[in-house]
Design brief:
42% of the residues lie in helices and 12% in strands. It is of the alpha/beta class. It has a five-stranded mixed beta sheet. It has a three-stranded parallel beta sheet with strand order 2-1-3, with no helix packed on it. Helix 1 runs parallel beside helix 2. The radius of gyration is 26 Å and the shape is elongated.
Length: 284
């Protein structure tokens, strides 16, 4: 296992998203790490070298590594492959590290690595590129590099926090699914649930609304059209808060979406009752 030394070396000149993000990743593990940039690795350099020098974290040599799906590695991917799970360890439980590190490589890093290797274009890579000094600027390129690394670090922090939140949501949804009654999953709080419930036996999900009260949603089937097994009754759709209790017989029902996939109610009991009536109507 590689340890993160206090010194690092990467190439000078115009910088790119792959070594900028690679540097940001390393800084998560050693915030005090200093980065030296140059066109040749100093002899007997004691530190980590990446994106130059033909070492384990460079990708410019012949027969450079590719992923099993054919996407070539750049410095970002090579650094992440070695250190990614250790970075994520500060954000999420150990059992999720390997899966989430691989998912992050697939969804985020591979776009940057592919752009660096092929010039195919990537919006984030282009954005990092704008941190380079303009052709007639007297600003230090190393200062611009440091600014880009700080920006990349902020992006990564936000992404990792989102990944960790998704893991927590998945765990919550799985636990709620295990307690499902009559096809209705009751969540203790609002959290993204589709990744767990779509394709399961769940027909409805109920959760506290961010606007107060409770929301109930139909869980769509895992088909191409995301069809609803039991949409809420057509006679509820689009009615006002005053009309809905009369039409539905549910005292605190206050909203039904025109597309009939979502209702809101003032109490948990009434949200559950709306699901029961929708299923009852669908079985008639």
């Amino acid at each position: 296992m590689y340890e993160i030394p206090s010194k690092a070396f990467t190439h000078a000149g115009k910088f790119h998203a792959d070594e900028v993000f690679a540097t940001a990743v390393l800084r998560f593990l050693n915030p005090a790490m200093t980065v030296r940039r140059g066109f040749r690795v100093p002899e007997h350099f004691e530190g980590i070298v990446y994106d130059i020098g033909f070492g384990p974290f460079d990708h410019h040599q012949q027969n450079a590594e590719k992923r099993p799906n054919g996407v070539p590695y750049a410095a970002f991917g090579l650094i992440w492959r070695e250190f990614g799970p250790r970075v994520l360890a500060a954000f999420m439980p150990p059992e999720a590290l390997a899966e989430e590190a691989a998912r992050f490589d697939e969804k985020f890093i591979q776009h940057i690595d592919k752009d660096d290797n092929t010039g195919c274009g990537d919006i984030l890579g282009d954005l990092i590129g704008t941190f380079n000094p303009c052709w007639d600027s007297e600003v230090s390129a190393d200062d611009c590099f440091a600014e880009a690394v700080a920006f990349a670090g902020t992006i990564l922090t936000k992404r990792f926090e989102s990944l960790a939140a998704a893991v927590r949501a998945r765990n919550m949804a799985q636990q709620a699914l295990a307690r499902m009654e009559d096809g209705v999953v009751t969540m203790p709080a609002y959290a993204p649930w589709k990744g767990v419930l779509v394709g399961s036996a769940a027909q409805f999900v109920v959760y506290p609304s961010q606007r107060g009260g409770y929301s109930a949603q139909c869980v769509p089937r895992a088909d191409q059209n995301h069809t609803l097994p039991y949409p809420f009754p057509a006679q509820w759709a689009g009615l006002s808060e005053e009309e809905l209790p009369l039409a539905s017989g549910i005292a605190t029902l206050r909203f039904c979406h025109n597309s009939r996939f979502l209702v809101t109610a003032g109490t948990l009991q009434d949200a559950l009752e709306a699901c029961r009536k929708a299923k009852e109507a669908g079985l008639e």
